[in-house]
Write a structure and sequence with these properties.
This protein is mostly helical. The chain is built from two helices and no strands. It has helices spanning about 5-30, 65-100. Mean pLDDT is about 80; it is low at about 35-45.
Length: about 120
């Protein structure tokens, strides 16, 4: 059985990972990649992302948190495909924008054939 201190530290780490998972799910919904109707993105949406750092945890995860950790892992794995699809779609959009010659970017409206 884990000490109360270790259990609290692991619980906090799982809480943070679950919060980040919900944030990723919300970003997918807002971008139209997730379930539900796409919403209008908020200004600066997604701009608060930070590099993840492993928390300073001691030992293995306590047995009493094993089911929760396994559920979190499964949910993270389900998001891998949609997140990668969103990354690819963003890359395609950036490539389309970057294909416009610089001199035409300052003028009037420019229309792109995104499907062709």
């Amino acid at each position: 059985m884990a000490s109360a201190r270790d259990l609290a530290a692991w619980t906090n780490a799982l809480d943070e990972l679950e919060t980040e998972l919900r944030r990723a799910e919300q970003l997918l919904v807002e971008s139209g990649q997730g379930s539900g109707a796409p919403e209008t993105p908020r200004p600066g949406a997604g701009s608060t992302a930070q590099l993840w750092r492993a928390p300073p945890l001691q030992g293995s995860i306590p047995a009493e948190l094993g089911t929760r950790a396994a559920s979190l892992l499964a949910a993270q794995q389900r998001l891998l495909g949609p997140l990668d699809a969103g990354r690819v779609a963003t890359l395609r959009q950036l490539q389309a924008v970057n294909s416009i010659p610089a001199q035409s970017r300052g003028g009037g409206a420019v229309y792109l054939d995104a499907k062709g």
